[in-house]
Specification:
single chain; Pnp Oxidase, Chain A; seven-stranded antiparallel sheet
């Protein structure tokens, strides 16, 4: 990624993460991400803070095969689409690598992992057909939900909802 690409990425408010299992009948996953959660760590290295959610497809797919694409899309200014293809690794909260990478991100009560991507391919395209959208601000629902649940409540939720993908692949190991 060039310095121009990096500067553009750092100004985006939203990105999308795509993963898929190896099984031909498995479900492809595409997740929107936002907040202050994305960091460029080097010319071919990025990471994002993964928040607790109702599923853990990305983590399961990365555990199985590591394939991931991250897409940024301009919703304001000149049209632009930017994709980072590579091999991703999920580092769960509490792991040594998570703790090392966490220094790059603000603390968040809903964080469950840091997803690290070793970028193998960088692709940009025009984005001429992407509409304009106005950014009005970040949502605070996850932060409120996570703060109310507390660490123990979040761990219980993850054990109930995040131990496997919808295709039955393991994601977060049960305690």
């Amino acid at each position: 990624m060039s310095p121009k690409h990096i500067a553009w990425i750092e100004n985006q408010k939203m990105f999308f993460v795509g993963t898929a299992p190896l099984a031909a009948d498995g479900h492809v996953n595409l997740s929107p991400k936002g907040g202050d959660s994305f960091r460029v760590l080097g010319p071919l290295e990025v990471a994002y803070l993964d928040y607790t959610g109702s599923g853990a497809e990305t983590i399961a797919h990365l555990r199985e095969n590591g394939r991931m694409v991250i897409m940024f899309c301009a919703f304001e200014g000149p049209p632009q689409i930017f994709r980072l293809h590579g091999i991703g690794t999920a580092h769960l909260k509490g792991s040594e690598t998570y703790e090392k990478l966490a220094a790059h991100f603000p603390e968040n009560p809903g964080a469950r992992a840091i997803i690290h991507l070793d970028v193998k391919r960088v692709a940009d395209s025009c984005g001429y057909a992407v509409p304009f959208y106005d950014y009005r601000g970040d949502r605070d629902g996850l932060d409120k939900w996570a703060s109310k649940k507390g660490e123990t409540g979040i761990q219980a939720y993850q054990q109930e909802k995040n131990t496997q993908s919808i295709d039955g692949l393991p994601s977060i190991d049960p305690s």
